[in-house]
Input
Amino acid sequence: MRGLFVTGTDTGVGKTVVAGAVVAALRARGERVAAFKPVVTGLDEPADPAWPRDHELLAAVAGASAEAVAPHAFGPPVSPHLAAELAGVELDLEGMVVAVGAAAAEADATVLVVEGVGGLLVPLTRDRSVRDLAAALGFPLVVAARPGLGTINHTLLTLESARAAGLKVAAVVMTPWPGEPTVMEESNRATVARLGSVAVATLPYLPDGSPASLAAGGESLPLAAWLR
Output
């Protein structure tokens, strides 16, 4: 099965927007796509009316239930391993891999888009990280990154961490990319591409998290190249 694993340089950098845009654009092209996020945390925080919660957004664009997209959901805005510990739940990496396959089979999907939690080294269990899950699945990595100050260091560290584990990086996506980028933002994109030996795409600011808005944004991404 073809697939992509969407990670980020940090939390709150636009992973879900990138993953949702990929799913929505592929479905608009007629692909059968499933979305999966192993764990979602922070449900105790107030929701943004324009942006559904991560698993709800992915469920909407994939035509699935939120429970099918994210089998583990926790209230506190903390790391998955701590959220599970506080809830008295034991997370299991091998079980997550099985759940990914089950989600794809249930959706009769030919493409699977998996979104991680936070950055690559965020612990999913006491001793296994998001990077371990990405390595177990073996899909090319798409890295969501901010366009502004600090992104060069964060992005290059993420690329180094991914490649150290044998992961193939398909691309970096800087988002939200402004309509009129500054000299620094243009330089950041070029510098990450050069020093990271990676293609750097951009995803513009989207007005909301609706499937139509995400599909329109994702249409500009080189999805076919990433999935080859």
